[in-house]
Specification:
6 helices, eight-stranded antiparallel sheet, alpha+beta, seven-stranded antiparallel sheet
């Protein structure tokens, strides 16, 4: 789960919104945009806009002139990325502190709440520095160096980020793969504009696990219901949950059924019928540094076809983007509740699949304690699974790295 600007604004909104229906529609639209960006957007880089669409429309202006009427499509260049390319340029030339995007769930453990420097904004804006190629083999980057197939990537990057603040790790991730429903549960989180759902004007009181709680519910344009729910138990511990694919009453029924031991670990046999509990991450992982390996394969030249009185630019289906992050902060099944992703089988390994990630379809899975995220322009799930099966570990001396 990541923090977005809408949630911060909503948390400060009046208790009685002027137009609750309009707010609901705005929230749905915003949710779609955030999901699109987080599903498939490669790490943002200073001074460059990543390819956000694989199609853009050009309008005819006179007999020969063309003007772009949609957002420009710009592929990052070696210069944009400080020389971290597969062409053998010096990785140390990358600008220190280049943003890598959200590396955490964006939720702060209650134990860290007394640190005034640890805020949701800090958690949602972790930065990373480039790892010099000479260090790839000797550190954690060496364990996550992977390429897709046999083709040489157009760009390769390696980043490291020290954790300034710990991040909360889910206490439970339960999902129903058949109907794409899921709930992520966080225990003992700090009270902040995201978790304090009771302070949001549209939130409603909701009994949860025998105590008074609050739920903020909405329905996305595709008809999928979503909620954010919080409650404080009898011991004064704040819990927070996010849900996708089912109404509030069903989500609460799942939450009421789950049982946890004294340390906050889920008792597996309490998982409701029809749901599966994913193995969650050790909370200590939320304090560890994060290392990320990125390989990008650019598409071939674009082609133009005439349509509706203009030209439609269609980029090649060759574009691929692989991101491997260690350690993985959450199981990929958490993407059901976070984004409405489907859980599919990748040769016996659960994987999160969406056809509509930014930059193409997306498949995510975990292996060896690392999270893999593959984005590609494919025509089907089977095609994506076949592509994922070509992902292989490489050595720093691999000739494809230049």
């Amino acid at each position: 789960m990541t923090i977005d600007a809408f949630e911060r604004v909503t948390a400060l909104a009046p208790q009685s919104p002027v137009d609750p229906d309009g707010l609901t529609r705005a929230r749905a639209a915003f949710e779609r945009e955030v999901a699109a960006q987080q599903h498939g957007s490669p790490a943002p880089r200073p001074g460059t806009a990543h390819r956000r669409r694989h199609v853009r429309r050009l309008a005819l202006a006179g007999a020969a002139a063309l003007s772009v009427t949609a957002a420009a499509v710009i592929l990052p260049t070696a210069h944009d990325l400080g020389g971290l390319t597969g062409g053998g340029e010096n990785p140390s030339a990358a600008a220190p502190g280049a943003p890598l995007g959200p590396l955490t769930t964006g939720l702060l453990p209650a134990a860290a709440a007394d640190d005034a420097s640890c805020t949701p904004e800090v958690l949602g804006s972790e930065t990373a520095h480039a790892v010099d190629r000479d260090l790839w083999a000797s550190g954690p980057i060496g364990s996550v160096m992977d390429l897709v197939g046999e083709r040489r990537p157009d760009h390769v990057w390696a980043y490291a980020a020290d954790r300034h603040c710990p991040t909360a790790v889910a206490a439970a991730v339960v999902y129903d793969a058949a109907t794409t429903r899921g709930v992520n549960v966080y225990r003992d989180v700090a009270t902040d504009p995201v978790t304090a759902v009771e302070e949001v004007g549209r939130a409603r009181e909701q009994s949860v696990r025998g105590v008074a709680g609050h739920a903020l519910a909405w329905v996305n344009d595709d008809g999928r219901p979503r909620q954010r729910i919080t409650w404080i138990d009898d011991d004064g511990v704040r819990w927070y949950a996010e849900s996708d694919g089912m109404p509030v009453e069903d989500t609460v029924a799942v939450l009421d059924a789950l049982a946890f031991d004294a340390d906050g670990a889920l008792l597996q046999d309490s998982t409701p019928a029809g749901f599966t509990a994913a193995p969650v991450t050790d909370p200590a992982v939320g304090e560890e540094p994060t290392y990320t390996w990125i390989a990008e394969y650019a598409g071939d030249e674009s082609t133009f076809v005439e349509q509706d009185g203009g030209l439609l630019e269609v980029t090649s289906r060759e574009y691929m983007y692989l991101e491997v992050t260690t350690p993985a902060l959450e199981p990929v099944e958490a993407r059901v509740a976070a984004f409405g992703d489907q859980v599919v089988d990748l040769d016996g390994v659960p994987a999160a699949w969406t056809e509509h990630g930014q930059g193409g379809a997306q498949l995510a899975w975990t292996a060896g304690g690392a999270r893999y995220r593959l984005t590609a322009v494919v025509g089907s799930l089977d095609e994506m699974l076949a592509l994922a099966r070509t992902v292989r570990a490489v050595e720093p001396t691999d000739e494809r790295l230049g």
